[in-house]
Write a structure and sequence with these properties.
There is one protein chain. This protein is of the alpha+beta class. It has 2 domains: about 1-120 and about 255-260, Diaminopimelate Epimerase, Chain A, domain 1 (Roll), CATH 3.10.310.10; about 125-245, Roll (Diaminopimelate Epimerase, Chain A, domain 1). Helix content is about 20%, strand content about 40%. It contains 5 helices and 19 strands. It has a 19-stranded mixed β-sheet that branches. The two termini are about 30 Å apart. The structure holds 2,6-diaminopimelic acid. 2,6-diaminopimelic acid binds near residues 60, 72, 201 and 209. It is found in: Cytoplasm. Homodimer. Keywords: Amino-acid biosynthesis, Cytoplasm, Isomerase, Lysine biosynthesis. Pfam families: DAP_epimerase.
């Protein structure tokens, strides 16, 4: 199976061109391809699909096989994929249908290849703050939907947090029946926003596009930052603007092709090793 490996700020996905049809059992395929020992290695799988409502469709699966409704870093790379591979000649108002609606992309080129992408992420939905017990203490979180669910926690010393313990406890908190992506955010002394993300279905990632948008929304609503702010993630920076005029979020950031590859899928030994480990 041929694939393309791409990343946005280190949030990396395996891309399959499915404009001619989708493979069977996408959740299992996502697990196999995402495995960093037995597969390609990625935060998940993204399929480029045909669409009747837009120029292309996008389906995104996390590393555990669960399907996401939207992916900010992933959709920027999809824009790069379809332009660089000649599947479109559009560089503005490129439309992509996702499970959370149609998104609009602007592609920015250098030397004929896409370098960065602006995405209209639509309108966020904020809910009142909730108090969550996790890892022996109470956390206040702001639920924000950007097409997918997020819980934004503001706290100091974000770098020192033990996300391996905190992340799963909040991701799977009973307050979120479909699980949730969790952002730990603090405003920095330059008016920016520093964010670490524990992603639903993938664990801590170097960046999360929808997470950066959710964190900006909650921080701007709380008056911590302006509505047009640089979000600093471990993998790099995203520019996010929550527009006054129409309430939409606009996210701008890089998109990178890492390598093209081909994987043989007949190798089943990974399954028994994983199942054996799971059993132990
Ligand atoms: N884990 C997310 C999907 C990937 C989102 C993230 N990679 C981004 O860049 O927005 C979810 O289950 O909703």
């Amino acid at each position: 199976m041929r694939f393309t490996k791409m990343q946005g700020l280190g949030n990396d996905y395996v891309y399959l061109n499915c404009t001619g049809g989708l493979p069977d059992n996408l959740p299992e395929l996502a697990v196999r391809l995402s495995d960093r020992h037995f597969g390609v290695g990625a935060d998940g799988l993204i399929c480029i699909c045909p669409s009747e409502r837009a120029d292309f469709g996008m389906r995104i699966f996390n590393a555990d096989g669960s399907e996401g409704a939207m992916c900010g870093n992933g959709i920027r790379c999809l824009g790069k994929y379809v332009y660089d591979k000649g599947l479109t000649r559009k560089t503005s108002l490129l439309t992509v249908e996702t499970a959370s609606g149609v998104r609009y992309l602007e592609l920015f080129l250098r030397d004929g290849l896409v370098q960065s992408v602006l995405v209209d992420m639509g309108r966020p939905e904020l809910s009142p703050p909730v108090k969550l017990m996790a890892a022996g203490r109470t956390w206040q979180a702001v639920p924000v939907s950007v097409g997918n669910p997020h819980a934004v926690v503001f706290c100091g010393g974000v770098d020192a947090l033990n996300l391996a313990e905190l992340g799963p406890a909040l991701e799977r908190h009973p307050a979120f029946p479909d699980r949730v992506n969790v952002e730990f955010a603090q405003s920095d002394d330059r008016g920016g926003l520093k964010v670490r993300v524990w992603e639903r279905g993938s664990g801590e990632t170097l960046a999360c596009g929808t997470g950066a948008c959710a964190a900006l929304t909650a921080a701007a609503r709380a008056g911590l930052v302006s509505r047009h702010t640089t979000v600093h993630l471990p993998g790099g920076e995203l520019e996010v603007r929550w527009a006054e005029e129409n309430g939409h979020l606009y996210m701008t950031g890089p998109a990178v092709t890492v390598f093209e590859g081909e994987i043989s899928l007949e190798n089943e030994n990974y399954r028994c090793v994983r199942e054996k480990n799971a059993v132990q």
